Amino acid sequence: MNFWVKTNYFIKRIFPNYVWDIPNHENKVFLTFDDGPTPEITEWTLEQLKKYDAKATFFCIGNNIEKHPEIFQKIIQGEHTIGNHTFNHLKGWETTNEVYIENVEKCAKTICQQKTATEHCPLFRPPYGKIKPSQSRILRKLGYKIIMWDVLSCDFDQTITPEECLENVLQHVESGSIIVFHDSIKAEQNLKYVLPK
Fold it and tell me: What are the pLDDT digits (tens) for 60-117?
């Protein structure tokens, strides 16, 4: 497997303006879910979180919010945190700054409309973790916090088994870790095995 499961200390030092983890002494970890809302998978995820009385952050794609507003409302009703994941899941490295920022703001507008509130959604996670420094600077000036991760579950990787996915998380998680999962079709098999465990 070629994915970087645990974010390297030096990467965190090179990019100090991003949130990679949230250190604490309470053995708290932070569950995050990218790419939803997705029919059935997001709803299943919400049921699991409720069963264990856990809260999470959902980094939603604006286009998916528009397609599935009723599922997005369930995330809000569950009192989970909402984050912005662009409107069309754009790779920052392959997108001009103007197009990228417009796409982020389009997602923000969709989130605010669905939340029936005008409050700014300050959390942003770049799809694929790929964002240009210039894009990051602009977004941070607009009030966004760039949330990355400490542990990548690789649940989206269909070449690994659910057991390997679980191992990715358990071997690398520590107090303060931000763990990335995906409430997406591609991740469904691994997610459904790993999350309850």
Answer: 999 999 999 999 999 999 999 999 999 999 999 999 999 999 999 999 999 998 875 5
Q: How far, in Å, CA of 155 to CA of 139, rounded?
A: 28
Q: Is the pTM of this model over 0.85?
A: yes
> Rounded to 10 degrees, what is the CA torsion of 182, 187, 191, 193?
-170
- Measured in Å, how far apart are the chain's first and last C-alpha atoms? 22
Interatomic CA distance for residues 74 and 38, integer angstroms: 12
Place of tokens 């991760």: 149
CA-to-CA separations, 195 to 49, 135, 187, 189, in angstroms, rounded: 9, 32, 11, 11
Does residue 108 contact residue 85 with C-beta atoms inside 8 Å? no
| DSSP count for the chain of H helices, then E strands | 8, 8
H helix runs in the chain, sequence order: 9-14, 41-51, 62-67, 69-77, 97-115, 133-141, 162-172, 188-194
- Assign residue 13 a region: left if phi > 0, alpha if psi is -120 to 50, beta otherwise? alpha
